[in-house]
Amino acid sequence: MTITAGIVGGTGYTGVELLRLLAGHPQVALQVITSRAQAGVPVSTIYPNLRGHIDLAFSEPDTEALAACDVVFFATPNGTAMEMAPALIDRGVRVIDLGADFRIRDLSVWSDWYGMAHSCPALAAEAVYGLPEQGRDAIRRARLVANPGCYPTAVQLGFLPLLEAGLVDTGQLVADAKSGASGAGRQPRQHTLLCEAGENFHAYGASGHRHLPEIRQGLEAAAGHPVGLTFVPHLIPMIRGIHATLYGRLLDPSVDLQAVYAARFADEPFVDVLPPGSHPETRSVRGSNMVRIAVHRPEGGDMALVLAVEDNLVKGAAGQALQNLNLMFGLPETLGLQGIAVLP
């Protein structure tokens, strides 16, 4: 089986990472890659690492061309997918949105955080949240998958075992997360310039960040009730990677956290629970679809401390999108995603 694929918005960091992964997928044939700004320009001119692997040129977005594909990925600014996806889905195309248009179920909350009205509430209600470790069966049946954000992936996977088993006080969860500069996208911004970001470290969005309602929604689904979450993201001076340090107060400090995490993720191909006492490093997942997790109980107290690392462009975006494609089309979940992390 060959799956024909199109990408809307192929010039950003997430889009090019998706191109890199799809070029190595044995059962996917890329047909369309759109970019209004770069229409007519060969992909390899913008991204020379793809020379010899992708021979397509960027093209203007065209519904007819995209509708000829089996699946279309949206790697676009928020607000784009919700305008284009309905026409494609009506013609039998399956859609994976790497943006935020379909991630949040409560559209009034979505509008508050993204500053616009949602244009297709019916599809938003149908969309399946694409975190395979939490919703694999629903993803297999989906016409529309909302690919999770980068921070939400690391934070949710780190907390899932604690919440599913009812092991922590869900009113006082804390997520302290750091991301490399590629998480801000490819568009020039002063705070990601080398002279601004280099030799520097700072928090942002401490009073409220767009990923907060998405994370909270996923954690509440795992817990089965509302949760209290403090989420603080930080920018660190590196290109790729997310490190999430998560805190939850244990209801029973005698619980064997290592055993809980090892059992929960035993059959997950892209979650690696490290041995006791480990401290995962972002470089250990660079370029791979793996999340590495370590659990601690400092000084034998009642605090569960979870450390989770991922590549924000792979498991936090394009790799997870490819994982979802495999599920949607009945392929082995790991197909095209077996690459080993790049180190150093």
From TrEMBL:
The active site is at residue 150. One of its GO terms (biological process) is L-arginine biosynthetic process. SMART domains: Semialdhyde_dh. Pathway: Amino-acid biosynthesis; L-arginine biosynthesis; N(2)-acetyl-L-ornithine from L-glutamate: step 3/4. Keywords: Amino-acid biosynthesis, Arginine biosynthesis, Cytoplasm, NADP, Oxidoreductase. It catalyses: N-acetyl-L-glutamate 5-semialdehyde + phosphate + NADP(+) = N-acetyl-L-glutamyl 5-phosphate + NADPH + H(+). The keyword 4Fe-4S does not apply. It is found in: Cytoplasm. GO terms for cellular component: cytoplasm. Residues 4-142 form the Semialdehyde dehydrogenase NAD-binding domain. Its main location: cytoplasm. Belongs to the NAGSA dehydrogenase family. Type 1 subfamily. This is N-acetyl-gamma-glutamyl-phosphate reductase.
